[in-house]
Amino acid sequence: MTAMSTVPWLTILGLIPLVGALVVAFVPGSAENAKRMAIGFSLVTLVVGIIAATQFDRASTKQFQLGEQHPWIPQFGVSYSLGVDGIALVLILMALVLTPICLLAAWHDVPEEVGPRGGQRVKTYFALILVLETFMVGVFAATDVFLFYVFFEAMLIPVYFLIGRFGGPRRQYAAMKFLLFSLAGGLIMLVAVIALYLQGPGGTDGFLIERLTGLSLDPTTERLLFVGFFFAFAVKAPMVPFHTWLPDAATESSPATATLLVGVLDKVGTFGMIRFCLQLFPEASTWATPVVVALAVLSVIYGALLAIGQTDMMRLVSYTSVSHFGFIVLGIFAFTNVGQGGSTLYMVNHGFSTAALFLFAAMLVRRRGSKRIPDFGGWQRITPALAGIFLVAGLSGLALPGLSSFVSEFLVLVGSFPTQPVAAVIATTGIILAALYILLMYKRVMTGPKPEGLVGEREHDRLDESGRRGLTAVRDLTTREKLVAAPLIAAFVVLGFLPNLALNVINPAVDKTLSHVQQAIPTLNPAGTVAEGSSK
Amino acid sequence: MTAVAPLALPTLPAAFQQSNVDYLAILPLLIVFGTALIGVLVEAFASRERRHAIQVTLAVVGLLAAAAAIILAAKHQGLTMGLTDGSTNRQLFALAVDGPALFMQATILLLGVLGVLTMAERFGGVGPDAFTPSGASTPGSATETAAARAGALTSEVFPLTMFAIFGMMLFPTTNDLIGMFVALEVLSLPLYILSGLARRRRLLSQEASLKYFLLGAFSSAFFLFGTALLYGYAGSVYFGDLSKAIASGPLAMNGLLLPGAFLVFVGLLFKVGAVPFHAWTPDVYQGAPTPVTGFMAACTKAAAFGAILRLAYVGLDTGRWEWTNALVLVALLTMVVGSVLSVTQTDMKRLLAYSSIAHAGFILVGVLAFDRKGVGAVLFYLVAYGFSTIAAFAIVSLVRQNGAEATHLSQWAGLGKRYPVVAGAFAFLMLAFAGIPLTSGFVSKFGVFSAAIGTGGATGTVLAVVGVLCSAITVFVYARVIVLMFFSDAPDDAVEVVIPSVSTTFSIAIGTLATLALGVLPSALLDLADRASQFVR
């Protein structure tokens, strides 16, 4: 089921950032140097990741490729086993692209302190992001349930430190809330992980996903195990009503942390639903579908409504994510190829569009010194370029045709309609709400009369001494910020017009996952042509 | 009552028979005991200037030699110190040198080395820094001042520790109730003294000592009374006889068996600090000199759980259904009370004390799996927890304000910003206690919980679920410590971290590295624990 690879690509991918983190944290030198090295390491990782992706064979009949497998703790049945299918591959690539962008965006997040060890804080910050990259690769690449759990939990620690040490005023509260919510979910999953092993064939490699797929479990056991896993993923994703940690964590952490947290880490939740809930517990997944779909629709609508009401820009963006995650979960539990393929593409697109929203909003916040939307207004007159990219990010968030998120949202809705028509119809209103929260935010921040006391840089240069009095110049995009924005916007457009670049990799993996479900539930019809009798 | 026929009491051997002793099997015990005796002589005859160095070297060499001797003893496993009665073929052996016993002995020896090294810390003074120069004097009295001025030092802590270690090694090795009682006393008495010897906050220390002694004496009495009842039931104190007697004994005699088994367990559960026999733990952990606390927390727990395992798996195994429910209740209470009460603690040592209570509960979950896997998991847990806890207490002893240990939580605020390495190590140990993956704490918890779910049936699953929930509670506690150290700002009268000598640094480094190594690559030790999990009968 796993195609082994002669070169341990995935281990290398994980090791480069880890080595980078050690170098960045402990090699003496200026903080500037450390930042450059951090970017360097993340770029090398990206290049290696792309090379590894070229080794991926779309037509392969094996579920996982680029595989590696070594015994790790044979007494517990644990292997160090890595491998990717199309879903994991695109998510890993997304994480690898986002990391250097976030590092670049985080350039001035942490002020250098005075003193001989003043640069250490900056170095720690960049090193922690690199450590996080290692875990992000590991969690998507793990093909052993125990190993996945290890990465799933270990990942919390760097994020906990990133929020708690480098966040805003309420960072202690936010960090603790994040940790407790995630760990509570994770520990429930731990019991299910142990119980799952005992249901499986056991032995020294009994935790491998392939050994645990297709077990004929007793229905009650299977449902309990499903709930154990799903709870952890629902907290992570986050779905209403387990979402309350996200706005706090995302608002209080630095923009780069928030991006990785919402853009990549939360995807582990929806990824886990596909990889573990659906593949390992197909019967229980269809059993739970009504509740899950209801929660998903609730997330779509409730998240959007809350987003409309926010006055804090970062909080607004995090609530839009709650809404988007509702779409993703809906697509997954539609049990159609189209819906699930759309959901996976949605995960990738959402990663980029959330990154854009968080990072571009942070550029505004840095200039204004406030996150409150009412503190802005008329900013397109002083920072036209920033307003432009902010609009593109917003349009991507509301799924404008031509930009990538449109494709995925469309696929999710089309894919859900055959099996979940009511839910799909209700969720569609989420698109209208999305237009509301994005455009209202843009209107309040960017349009309107020119802000008092501020002036654009160009105009400032044109004014003479007396004209400048009482005016503060605001810089438009710097080169560094343009470098942050360019790849993100490119991703929107490219994936918007050529979604098949990703879909061709994703779809075979989705087909394989759904074929596991179909083996257990023969009445299921993933092609979605006849809705009768399915997913009941 | 009169209708019940008395059990046929086994008759004693008719003629005197010499007992068989395999000296190689008990060599580690002999070495430690011998070193302790030499230590007493050194105390009497060596000059004051050299006494400290001699005692520390002697103790460490003795412990390492004994650890090496374990390898020899491992080839001579079996029952020893006794005889096989020719007529009835009964095994009357006082000691059982088997896998679990030797594994526990090795654990106690290695942890003992680290414990002795932290106790040896002098911070540039003449004697061990943590210990008062004159333990018998009234705190603050003229005698005490005179003793301190005269340069008196408390190097007798090292022979005392060696006696305690001897008792600890004996505890899981004994094969009968009387031997177990003797070992219990041998390990306890030196600890009562050591707890009262703290140099600073001496009233607290003496209170701890007295409390520990009184409650300890009480629990010993329980143990002894239970032994008497069990002797009345089985007519023998040997575990083998006990097990056979329960298997064949009439139900009507349960009036002796049940209270007997329960009282014996009380004596042992007291030593591990299980709820409701835990009341001494926070006070003693707080009052005792910090290096002693670390040593006690790690080694006493290992020894006492070794003894509990033997009692539960060898002595009273056949009567399991009689006492399991009580023990399940104790395990549940221990986990819940330990983790919930640790939330409210404001003193670092008390926090670690409640954490050790919660850990005792988790280990009990492994004991209640009633399976070889459970034994292996418990053995692993004790090693992992021991290394982490000794290192943690060693770090606590370094954080000081005006020369005295700063154990109040608020004093630790901002420590991570000024002492990133020490605070980083402590944070790592906290994560291990919390059971985060890639630390030994996670592997330990996984081991006991999976054993419980695997073979403990529905009860085991309930225990594991409660254990997991309690872990979540304790995460809050440990995360709060990390928040304090790393995310808070230091107060103006900030504490300092004293630069320790090589010996303490070594203990902390080994403890922390072992915590990491057992988390990342646990399979070698798991394998060893698994192979050592078979008891001889």
What report would you give on this structure?
The complex is a heterodimer of chains A (536) and B (537). Chain A has 536 residues and is mainly alpha-helical. In chain A, 69% of the residues lie in helices and 5% in strands. Chain A is built from 22 helices and 5 strands. The radius of gyration of chain A is 23 Å and the shape is globular. Chain A starts with a strand and ends in a 16-residue tail after the last helix. The C terminus of chain A is likely disordered. Chain B is mostly helical. Chain B has one domain. Chain B has 20 helices and 5 strands. The two termini of chain B are 33 Å apart. Chains A and B meet through strand 2, helix 5, helix 6 and helix 7 of A and helix 17, helix 18 and helix 20 of B.
Characteristic terms for this protein:
heterodimer, A: 536 residues, mainly alpha, 3-stranded mixed beta sheet, two-stranded parallel ribbon, 5 strands, globular, disordered C terminus, B: 537 residues, 3-stranded antiparallel beta sheet, two-stranded antiparallel ribbon, 20 helices, 68% helix, 4% strand
Shape of chain B: globular
Major sheet strand order of chain A? 1-2-3
Radius of gyration of chain A: 23 Å
Total number of beta strands of chain B:
5
What is the total number of structural domains of chain B? 1
Structural class of chain B: mainly alpha
Helix content of chain A: 55-70%
Largest sheet, spatial ordering of strands of chain B: 4-3-5
Amount of beta strand of chain A: under 5%
Task: Outline the biggest β-sheet of chain B.
Answer: 3 strands, antiparallel
Uncertain runs of chain A: 530-536
Poorly predicted spans of chain B: none
Q: Count the beta strands of chain A.
A: 5
**Strand percent estimate of chain B:** under 5%
